[in-house]
Write a structure and sequence with these properties.
Strand 44 and strand 45 form a beta hairpin. By secondary structure, the protein is mainly beta. The chain starts with 18 loop residues before the first helix and ends with a strand. Strands 1-29-28-27-26 form a 5-stranded mixed beta sheet, with no helix packed on it. It has a 5-stranded mixed beta sheet with strand order 31-39-38-33-34, with no helix packed on it. A 4-stranded antiparallel beta sheet has the order 2-3-4-5, with no helix packed on it. It is 2% helix and 47% strand. It is built from 2 helices and 59 strands.
């Protein structure tokens, strides 16, 4: 076939480029691929000469080094390009104002996206001299030291090879006689003296695809191979003996097809097996072998049997040799070897491998450069504090784990050792936020744990915890990942916090003597206080005619409970921090002289809970807490008389914002009065809260139930229960009541405290 008229031929502008241009296009300062602060440690046993970045992609391989790119460049294509030298691993960052191309040689080409001029760089020479190429054609790719340009006008296609003459700054131009109606799709390096051009003719259902072997010495077509009505998947190759490609017989299968050099007729075909529809299968040649892979398996989110890089003898393609477990990019080097950015579970992890024939002629993979990462899914970093203090960070904790790559899915579980209750976060590479985090799993823990059985979520108690991360690789490469660690949760123990989880517990006894505990919960997403689950504490409590929650009076780590029996003996039950109580201890006899007991507030500012009692004469007595289990209270001190007018007194903690323990008292008419504490065991002038409180049978100084930092009042009666939040204002110490579901069945209990 004759080349089209020279009037349509590209014009080569051959010129030496000034030194200032060379400096602009190629950065002269070498930079390692990973800085000292970022350079990862090599996996055990890895003996690669140097380290490269994990997100490197190969573009072209030469005799002295290779061209690569990474995401994040300033160009419109979003890539930054590099040249790495084999001898010492030195990596040069190439000018980000240019796009860079290569085709299996130390010669690379560059251009600015906004310009038509191309520059040729010989990376093997220290001067890195340039030659300018310009014309009215489009750059189609590179074959070794040759740049392929195409142009199309009304007369048809014009294809030229522009070659840098070795050792000079001259360029020769060769015409390539492709059909005038051809559409060039790609060019591919082949042998030392020949390259491959893939093109198509026709349109729609009449399209036919071709591979043309081109003599690099004279630009002539050596052999044309039709590949059918479907384009090769990705991989095409040219050797001294074969033209080969990955065909696409059906949407779910692929085949390796070859035609002998100089031969015609039906191609030899070998089925590669089940393949995802339109999967990008690549192929290259190493001696008398073809290597194939489905590129991108390392970061894929579904498994495929085609991810491994395997080699098949062109004379016996039914006996594949597995070389790597996945490959992301690969390119043919001038010596006929193939450079691959991939990974191996058994050899050296992630890195750049050279595929070349061993003495027997069988391809083997040799690690050239490591990224410092293993191929299997791993845990790269953990950000879990040794102590999660929910009192310092608003009841939330930010925990995170970073996988070695984002394409994993699984769960992170936080487990309270003592109770076994858990909080779980699921994650997947399909999760956009997870993907953008580069494999980081963020767990914004709200401090809640799911119940073991029944009930609803409740706050996490203080104590020991275990975290467990389980993940499986979505690409199916390598084993599942399982890692564990430990941490502690710290919380301050409140007045009614018997479980150590920072939220008040309300106790209630029924007529049969069974004692129950409700752990109250309110979260930013809930509109009311609710119970995370009712737990029976014990039985036999009917022997007591008075029960009162009194805070920590015995110097332990949890609130305590006072119980008076029918003979007037007062007993102390120390809280164990797990929602229960220890063996009772006798406080003393004679307590039947008191009509009411109320405790829990620190009334004198010494940091300990105290006790108040009213006797039959209406006198109010103050018992200072000592912090001793054997003698929990000091000698009583009389506060004053006239308290017989009240049928309910309740120590409520600080309602008025004075940091002193306060008191509310209800009279027989149902009016509630507020007594502000003075911090010395006495009270100021009472303030009327309001009437209508006679409908409640139980008033409980529950502590901070709504988690706003102020003490609250809990009220229960036949009509259910209400929470009255503290306002912090002495003149109106309580906010309007809000419904709670904690004791909607309050009528079944004879004591709620």
């Amino acid at each position: 076939m004759q080349h089209p008229s020279s009037a349509r031929r590209l014009v080569a502008a051959v010129a030496a480029v000034l030194a200032v241009t060379s400096t602009a296009a190629l950065a002269a300062t070498p930079a390692t691929a990973a800085t000292a602060a970022e350079a990862p440690a090599r996996p055990a046993g890895v003996t690669a000469a140097f380290t490269v970045d994990n997100d490197l992609q190969l573009v072209s391989a030469g005799t002295t080094g290779f061209l690569s790119r990474k995401p994040g460049g300033a160009l419109l294509d979003g890539w930054q390009y590099y040249w790495t030298t084999y001898a010492d691993g030195t990596t040069k960052s190439l000018d980000p104002a240019y796009q860079w191309f290569g085709g299996g040689s130390d010669v690379v080409f560059s251009r600015k996206p906004t310009e038509t001029s191309y520059f040729v760089h010989d990376m093997a020479h220290p001067s890195n001299f340039l030659v300018g190429l310009s014309g009215n054609g489009a750059f189609a790719g590179a074959i070794g030291r040759n740049a392929v340009f195409t142009s199309q006008d009304s007369d048809g296609l014009d294809v030229t090879l522009k070659r840098l003459v070795t050792g000079t700054s001259q360029v020769t131009t060769l015409d390539v006689p492709l059909p005038a109606d051809a559409r060039v799709l790609r060019v591919q390096a082949g042998t030392v003296d020949a390259g491959l051009i893939q093109y198509a003719r026709g349109f729609g259902d009449e399209t036919t695809f071709y591979l043309a072997a081109v003599d690099l010495g004279n630009g002539q077509i050596i052999q044309t191979v039709p590949t059918g009505s479907t384009a090769p998947r990705s991989g095409v190759f040219l050797t001294d003996t074969h033209v080969g490609w990955v065909g696409n017989p059906t949407g779910s299968s692929a085949a390796l097809l070859t035609v002998a050099r100089g031969g015609e007729g039906t191609p030899a075909s070998f089925a590669l097996g089940a393949t995802p529809v339109n999967a990008p299968l690549d192929a290259a040649a190493v001696g008398g072998w073809a290597v194939t892979t489905q590129k991108g398996g390392g970061l894929a989110e579904q498994p495929s049997a085609q991810y491994p890089l395997v080699a098949r003898s062109l004379s016996n393609p039914g006996s594949p040799v597995r070389l790597l477990d996945h490959a992301g990019s690969m390119t043919t080097a001038p010596d006929g070897s193939v450079l691959v950015r991939g990974g191996s579970l058994s050899q050296g992890g992630e890195g750049v491998y050279r595929i070349a024939a061993d003495p027997s002629g069988t391809p083997v993979a040799t690690l050239v450069a490591t990224t410092g990462r293993k191929t299997e899914l791993g845990l790269a970093a953990t950000a879990v504090p040794s102590v999660v203090d929910f009192d310092r960070n608003g009841g939330r904790a930010a925990l995170s784990w970073t996988l070695s790559r984002y394409n994993g899915e699984g769960t992170v579980t936080l487990r309270h050792v003592a109770s076994g209750r858990k909080a779980t976060r699921s994650f997947s590479g399909r999760d956009y936020a997870f993907r953008e985090g580069g494999g980081r799993i963020d767990f914004a823990w709200d401090g809640l744990l799911a119940p073991n059985t029944g009930g609803t979520a409740g706050f996490a108690p203080a104590g020991d915890y275990v975290w467990e991360l389980k993940a499986k690789p979505l690409n199916g490469i390598g084993p599942d990942l399982s890692r564990t660690g430990t941490f502690k949760v710290a919380r301050k123990t409140g007045l009614h916090d018997y479980t150590g989880n920072g939220s008040p517990d309300v106790l209630a006894r029924d007529a049969s003597g069974r004692l129950f505990r409700d752990d109250t919960v309110i979260t930013p997403s809930s509109t009311e206080v609710y119970s995370s689950g009712r737990t029976q504490v014990g039985t036999g409590w009917q022997v007591y005619n008075l029960l009162e929650a009194v805070g920590d009076v015995a110097g332990g780590t949890a609130p305590d409970l006072l119980a008076r029996d029918a003979s007037g003996v007062l007993w102390l039950y120390q809280g164990n921090g797990n929602g229960g109580f220890g063996t009772r201890a006798k406080v003393g006899p004679g307590w039947n002289t008191y009509k009411q007991l109320t405790g829990g507030s620190d009334l004198n500012g010494d940091g300990r809970a105290d006790l108040l009692a009213t006797d039959g004469t209406g006198a109010l007595w103050f018992y200072k807490g000592t912090g001793s289990a054997s003698t929990p209270f000091a000698t009583r001190v009389k506060v004053g008389g006239g308290w017989g007018a009240y049928n309910q007194i309740t120590a409520v903690g600080d309602l008025a914002g004075s940091a002193a323990g306060d008191l509310v008292a209800r009279d027989t008419a149902g009016v509630l009065w507020f007594y502000p504490g003075d911090g010395r065991g006495n009270f100021g002038t009472r303030v009327k809260v309001g009437g209508g409180w006679g409908g409640f049978t139980h008033l409980v100084g529950v502590g901070d139930a709504d988690r706003d930092g102020r003490a609250d009042l809990y009220a229960a009666g036949p009509s259910g229960s209400r929470l009255y939040p503290g306002s912090g204002i002495a003149a109106s110490p309580l906010k309007p009541g809000v419904f709670t579901s904690v004791h909607s069945d309050a009528a079944r209990f004879n004591s709620i405290f």
